[in-house]
Amino acid sequence: MERKGFSSNFGMIMAAVGSAVGLGNIWRFPYIVGTNGGGAFLLVYILICIVIGVPILVSEMLIGRRTKTDSVDCFKKLAPGKKWYISGIIAVIASFLILSFYSVVAGWSLEYIVKSAGNQFVGKSPDEISNLFTSFISSPIKPIAWTFVFMLMTMVIVKSGVSEGIEKVSKVAIPVLLVIVILLGIRGVTLAGGREGLKFLFYPDFSKFTMEGFLAALGHSFFTLSLGMAIMTTYGSYIPDDGNIIKSALSIAFFDTLIAVLAGIAIFTSVFTFNLDPTQGAGLVFITLPNVFPQMPGGYLFGLAFFVLLALAALTSTISLLESSVAFGVDSLKLSRKKASFLAAGGIFLLSILSSLSNGPDTSLHIAGLTFFDFLDKLTSNYMLTIAALIEIIFLGWAYDKDAIYDELTNHHSLEQKAFKAYYIALKYIAPIAMIFIILTSLGILKSA
Length: 449
Known about the structure:
Layout: H1 9-20, H2 23-35, H3 39-67, H4 73-78, H5 86-117, H6 126-137, H7 142-159, H8 162-189, H9 194-202, H10 211-224, H11 231-236, H12 245-273, H13 284-292, H14 299-331, H15 337-357, E1 366-367, E2 370-371, H16 372-399, H17 402-409, H18 420-442
Antiparallel strand pairs: 1-2
Helix pairs in contact: 1-8, 1-12, 1-14, 2-10, 2-12, 2-14, 3-9, 3-10, 3-12, 3-18, 5-7, 5-14, 5-15, 5-16, 6-13, 7-8, 7-14, 7-15, 8-12, 8-14, 9-12, 10-16, 14-15, 15-16, 16-18
C-alpha cells in the first residue's frame, strides 16, 4: 500500500519547522540565553546548530525517506538482524515522555491566553503576578484540565492524517506564528530599553560564558531541532522522492533559529525596558512578561498576541511529538491511525497528570530531588535524545554504505550535492565526538568546569 505523506515540499518544511519551533523557542530558549550570558551563548548555539545539528537532522530525514517507515522499523529494514533499532525505541519513548510534560506547559499557555484576554495582570504587583503563576501550576485540577484540552486538540489533528491534518495546520500556523513574533520583535525594538536588550542578546561577552553554557547550547540544539525524538525520521518518511533533503534541513534550521532570535528580541528588549531580571529562569515568560505588558503602550494586545504565539508554537510541536508515537503504532504495531492516536494520546495524558501534580505540594512525586516534571525533562534532554541520535549517526557513518547515503541525498544521482563531503565528515567524526563528550560530561566522567 502506498504510504501517504506530505503533498508538497513546502508542506513538509512547514510541518518540520512547526516541530522545531515550539515552546523550546519561545519559552525555553530566552531563559537559557538569559542564564548563560546572552550573546556568547547565542553565537555558540548557532555554530553548534550548523556543525552538529544540521548533519544529524539530515541523517534522520535521510533514514526516514530511505525506508518510508517509522523510527524503529527503519533500522530493521536498513540492517536486518542487527540491534540498531534500539535507537528508534529510545527515540519513541523519549518523544512519549517529553510530550507528557511538554503538554502541561502547553496547557499553561491556554490559561494565560484567558488571563490576558481578561486583563488580569493590570494593577498587580510583581509578587502578586508571581503568586498567581505559582498557585495556578500547583493546583490539582486546573492545569490538568488545560492539558487535557491541549492533548485533545493535538490528537484530533494527528488522527486526521499527515496531509489532511498535520500539513494543513502547519501551513497556516507557522506563517501566522512568524508574523506575530516579527510584530512583537518590532514593538520591542521601539521600547526605551530596546538597545540594551539587543546588546545583551547579540554582544558576545565570553567572560560570562562557561562550559555549562556550552553543554546547555548543545542540549538545546537537540531539543529545539527535534533530534533523537523519532520526529524527523518519521517526517522524513513522508518526504516526496524529489525533495532535496539537505536544502530542507537547512531551511528548517534557519527558520527555527530565526524565530528563536526574534522571540529573544521581543523578550529581552521588554525586560531591559522595565529593569527586570533576564536571568529569571523558567519563569521568564509566565512571571516576568506579565509584569511588562500592562506597562507598555498597547500592552493588552501585545500581551494577548504573545500568549497566542506561545500556544501556537506549542501546538505545532505537540503534533509532531504525538505523530512519532502514532507512526510507531501504525507501522510497527500495525494499528489503525485512529486507534494508535487514541492510545498514544491517552497514555501520554495519564502520565502528564503526574508531571502536573508534581508541581504542587506533594513531595512523593519527586525523584532524585527533582519534581517528576523536571526529572522527565532532565532524563530526556540530557540522556535519551543524545544517546538515540548517537546510535543513529554511528550506524549511518560507520556501519552503513556511503554510496547508499550519497544515492539518497542526490535523489538517485539526479541532484548535485556539493555539500556532501562536508556533511559526511560531520556525520562520521565531528558529531559523534561532540555527543560522546556531552554524555561523558553529563554522567560526571568528564568535568564540565
